From TrEMBL:
Name used for this protein in its record: Urea transport system ATP-binding protein
SMART domains named in the record: AAA
Entry-linked PROSITE patterns: ABC_TRANSPORTER_2 (PS50893)
Family: Belongs to the ABC transporter superfamily.
Keywords, alphabetical: Amino-acid transport, ATP-binding, Nucleotide-binding, Transport
Length: 259
């Protein structure tokens, strides 16, 4: 679904990502791990078009993203929840959610109702200012905002940083639920009379809601083991290991993750 090939990125003269390549298969939930400062956030920002790259290619569903602006990448179906959430504290919850729609050319469609099914608390707080929400509620808002364009790939940067333990498990549940259908599309061969429009819409909606491929940066292993089925490890701007969660050995943890 997403592939990065031989990517090089610099901050000024400082070479940060080195010939970096990776592949995220459709339907996977992949944890990108590594110590502080190895380049995880930088990589996500390059994928989203928020930082320029020096060379290499980023492809999404067989299209090159390299020349596209951040909004165009969002429009193609990539949702992004930045580190630190970056919600607008002075805007209401509703206004914050609407900022997620800005990439869309056709602005006539509003916030999809399923956002409130996933995060009921947002519905009760529509008129509250973002800055008045708790940390966990702000994170739900940040994820909700990333879901308003119904992305097929959801990228999250440290989604449980600074969040209370009870909300951490809720955020974990949401990620698992979003990812569960493993990205498989529902196809209707022909209109069957037994399937009403309402049921058809509900199936498509639930599938959309739950068929999201996930790429998340996260350090906390218990959380990663719960929500991800694959891992990638970065060190000094390169991918140095990857595999299924069962292949994350103690040796890898010692070499690349423990501080
Ligand atoms: N805007 C910037 N200008 C210059 N250097 C930067 C900038 N942002 C990050 N860096 C440097 O690039 C390197 C990679 O940083 P990055 O934030 O991508 O790492 P990270 O793995 O996400 O770390 P963390 O877990 O702390 O978020 C670090 O050495 C960092 O100091």
């Amino acid at each position: 679904m997403l592939s990065v090939a031989a990517l090089n990125q610099y901050y000024g003269e400082s070479h940060t990502l080195w010939d970096l390549s990776l592949d995220i298969p459709v339907g996977a939930s992949v944890a990108l791990m590594g110590r502080n400062g190895v380049g995880k956030t930088t990589l996500l920002k390059c994928i989203m078009g928020l930082l320029p790259v020096r060379s290499g290619e980023i492809r999404y569903e067989d299209r090159s993203l390299t020349a596209l602006r951040a909004e165009q990448r969002a429009e193609l179906g990539i949702g992004y929840v930045p580190q630190g959430r970056e919600i607008f504290p002075m805007l209401t919850v509703e206004e914050n959610l609407k900022t997620g729609l800005r990439a869309r050319g056709d602005k006539s469609k509003g916030i999809p109702e399923e956002i409130f099914e996933i995060f009921p608390v947002l519905k009760t707080m529509l008129r509250r200012r973002g800055g008045d929400l708790s940390g966990g509620q702000q994170q739900q808002l940040a994820i909700g905002r990333a879901l308003v364009l119904r992305p097929k790939l959801l990228i999250l940067d440290e989604p449980i940083e600074g969040i209370q333990p009870n909300i951490v498990s809720e955020i974990g549940d949401v990620i698992i639920r979003l990812n569960r259908a493993r990205g498989k599309e529902v196809h209707f061969e022909k209109r069957e009379s037994s399937v009403t429009d309402e049921i058809r819409d509900a199936i498509v909606r639930v599938n959309r809601e739950m068929g999201v491929t996930v790429l998340l940066v996260e350090q906390k292993q218990h959380f990663v083991k719960r929500v991800a089925d694959r891992f990638l490890i970065m060190d000094k701007g390169r991918i140095v290991a990857g595999g299924t969660m069962a292949e994350l050995t103690e040796d890898l943890v010692r070499r690349y993750l423990t501080v």
